[in-house]
Design goal:
The chain has 496 residues and is α/β, with parallel strands linked by helices. Helix content is 48%, strand content 11%. Strand 4, helix 9 and strand 5 form a beta-alpha-beta unit. The radius of gyration is 27 Å and the shape is flat. It starts with 9 loop residues before the first helix and ends in a 5-residue tail after the last helix.
């Protein structure tokens, strides 16, 4: 453990004027890190999943009315609609893509329609054999539903592409060289993808003029050379998309830029013609932009429903644990007060998900000499200034119990990479390329690295490897396994 502390179309681009990064004006509000306002057309795009759900519901209703037995009660139809919604959501059929296609969705919809009709028909026949439907009727119902749903979805997708072409959103392209120039040209030539490049980020040390010659009659884009310039440009231009042409970990300041875009709510893409990508942050199947592979990058695994379940589980379990452990908390607080004096709880800045800082809570086990020692000293497990109460709390890991309140507040999760202080995050990120990637998920009280004994003075590279593996293979079952192993390690006095 660590030391404690006290505290668009081409025509639209023809007017672009090349300027250096220093020419980007600061945001009018003066707040460089404030969220960018919503661009025009974004609200319309957000309505697309709802429109697709309505299409599927209408297609199901049409199939029931034309083919399915008319004696089915309305509650059965509502049940089938709920099953359809769950299956389509799980399959990602309501996910917003760059190149939506009803024909590409047809195989998945056909399989799910067959499953839902069979399951509901079997359930109805068990409840009331008089309502049993034949195989021919079920097949016709599924066929009508698939055709109607695909036709309606095709209209919705076409309307989305038309809206995207009319209201493209500001986009920053990250990368230098010919590939980045080709991606910029494609986005300018094909506004139906909804991206209008307003600047390029080449990174520190790169040659701004390398491989960025614009097509005939096209003015070059502004060039940004640092994450600070990018932050100002995001706010000033209402940037809603960020496009990497190589994985973020292969770009100078790439992880810092990725965290910046995540904080501002930008959709982050990896658009490349290379076969090797950072799959640890991508959706299973890529989209495409005029033949270029397009991967949606996420601050965490692309399973929003499962992550909401994780968050709900964290909040409930942490609240119950706080209530159940209240006598232990009171005893620990009393021991710290008697042995170390006032100041039972200490607060320390740590780095959480997407690089956001938060205040971590722990029981005080040592009073550092000053804030500099608190911020930069790595381990104090053998410090002679620690009282008996402090040593016992650290050995049993009971000093971590106040972090349950951090979990309830949403600063942390029960399971995840352990948070570290800003000073060491900077140090370790320079030494180990994969360290910053630990911040793709919420940090935790315990984690996969900790249950493998990687605590205290152990390899940072090994910790980062275990943390990234946890993120890449994350599941709710894995969280439960880590919690069970953590509970067992407490009885072995494995703290630091």
């Amino acid at each position: 453990m660590t030391t404690e502390s006290a505290p668009a179309p081409r025509a639209a681009q023809a007017t672009a004027v090349r300027r250096a990064a220093s020419a980007i004006r600061p945001p009018r509000s003066g707040q460089e890190d404030s969220p960018a306002p919503r661009a025009s057309g974004e609200v319309a795009r957000r309505r697309a999943p709802a429109a697709l759900m309505i299409c599927d519901a209408l297609a199901l209703g049409l199939a029931v009315a034309l083919v399915a037995p008319g004696s089915w009660p309305p509650v059965v139809v509502l049940l089938q609609a709920a099953v359809q919604l769950l299956l389509h959501t799980y399959r990602g059929l309501y996910r917003s893509g760059l190149s939506p296609s009803a024909l590409a969705e047809l195989p998945a919809m056909a399989g799910l329609a067959a499953v839902q009709w069979y399951v509901v028909a079997e359930a109805v026949s068990v409840h009331d054999p008089r309502l049993t439907a034949g195989w021919v009727a079920l097949g016709c119902a599924a066929g009508v539903q698939i055709l109607a749903s695909c036709g309606a979805r095709a209209l919705v997708h076409r309307a989305r592409l038309w809206s995207a072409a009319r209201h493209p959103q500001s986009t920053l392209v990250v990368g230098d060289g010919p590939l980045a120039a080709r991606v910029v040209a494609v986005l300018q030539d094909h506004p139906r993808y909804g991206m209008r490049p307003v600047g390029r980020i080449v990174g520190a040390g790169a040659d701004p003029d390398e491989g960025v010659d614009p097509p005939a009659g096209e003015a070059p884009l502004p060039v940004l050379a640092s994450a600070q310039d990018a932050g100002r440009a995001v706010v000033q231009n209402c940037v809603r998309h960020a496009v990497f042409t190589v994985p973020p970990e292969h770009v100078s300041d790439g992880e810092e830029l990725f965290a910046l875009f995540a904080r501002h709510g930008c959709r982050v893409w990896l658009i490349t013609d290379q076969g090797t990508v950072a799959r640890c942050r991508t959706v299973p199947r890529p989209d495409h932009v005029w033949g270029f592979a397009a991967y949606a990058l996420h601050a965490g695994p692309a399973r929003p429903v499962a992550h909401r379940v994780k968050r709900g589980m964290d909040a409930v379990l942490a609240a119950l644990a706080l209530v159940a452990a209240s006598p232990v908390l009171a005893a620990c607080a009393l021991a710290v007060r008697v042995c170390d004096g006032p100041g039972v709880i200490f607060r320390q800045e740590r780095i959480g998900e997407s690089g956001r800082p938060f205040v971590l809570l722990k029981f005080r086990t040592l009073r550092p000499a000053d804030e500099h020692e608190s911020a930069t000293r790595w381990n104090v497990s053998a410090d002679g200034r620690m009282s008996r109460a402090g040593k016992l709390l650290r050995r049993t890991s009971l000093d971590e119990l106040p972090q349950l309140w951090n979990v309830v507040r949403g600063d942390m999760s029960l399971v995840g990479p352990r948070p570290e202080r800003p000073y060491f995050v900077q140090q370790f990120s320079r030494m180990h390329p994969g360290y910053r990637m630990r911040h793709r998920m919420p940090v935790g009280i315990t984690g996969l690295a900790q249950v493998h004994g990687l605590r205290g003075d152990t390899s940072i590279e090994d910790r980062a490897r275990f943390d990234n593996r946890y993120i890449e293979t994350w599941s709710l079952w894995q969280d439960l396994c880590v919690l069970a192993r953590t509970a067992g390690s407490v009885f072995r006095l494995g703290g630091s």
